[in-house]
Write a structure and sequence with these properties.
Mean pLDDT: 83
Radius of gyration: 17 Å
Order of helices and strands: HHHHHHHHHH
Strand content: under 5%
Helix content: over 70%
Number of helices: 10
Number of strands: 0
Largest sheet: none
Length: 191
């Protein structure tokens, strides 16, 4: 859920690459499909736009692997989880580690916005350059799962139209974002 953190390091890449680094967080339950299908695709066999999309997806997972094993990430998540567990209501939170994990990623994006306010505009400017049909065209080549492709397409349209990352400019809205992400994640996970 750290769209801007991913974007920050690769913002000089093509819009299709930027879409690739965003897709795993835009598309619910993408990791399952990534491990089954996309992880082993040879991007060299495709045209530039498709290649960039695949390489962006792979970059997302490479960065996540490094970030999620970093001592800072592990320490922050552990400390926050311990603090929450001291509260009487902690047992009402499903999948506490997921919530702590996502909260840390949201805080990172909020930090980037406070540090560099123009990053949100640049990010959405790049997103607006993406022809959404690339999702249907390219993902249909990689998988015959029409429902999966349709969900990615719909999620991308909603993501680009609502520009919800602008909400992170206000610290209080991080909780609202966390609630929405959690509700969506738990719904997808239960399906």
């Amino acid at each position: 859920m750290n769209f801007l953190s991913h974007y920050y390091f690769d913002q000089d890449k093509s819009p299709e690459f930027i879409l690739g680094i965003a897709i795993p967080d835009i598309a619910g339950n993408f990791s399952h499909h990534y491990n089954q299908i996309f992880k082993n695709i040879d991007s060299n066999a495709y045209a530039k736009a498709e290649k960039d999309l695949i390489n962006g997806i792979n970059q997302h997972y490479r960065v996540d692997a490094i970030f999620h094993s970093a001592p800072l990430f592990e320490e922050y998540c552990h400390n926050l989880k311990m603090r929450i567990m001291q509260k009487t209501w902690h047992d009402k939170l499903p999948r506490l580690y997921f919530i702590v994990h996502v909260l840390f990623e949201l805080v990172l994006d909020a930090y980037l916005i406070h540090r560099e306010p123009s990053i949100v505009n640049r990010f959405y400017q790049t997103v607006k350059e993406i022809n959404p049909q690339i999702i249907k065209t390219n993902f249909s080549r990689f998988t015959e799962m029409d429902l999966f492709v349709s969900k990615i397409f719909a999620n991308f349209i909603r993501f680009s139209n609502h520009e919800f990352l602008r909400l992170y400019e206000e610290d209080a809205t991080l909780v609202i974002g966390l609630k929405r992400i959690s509700q969506h994640h738990f719904k997808v996970a239960d399906e």
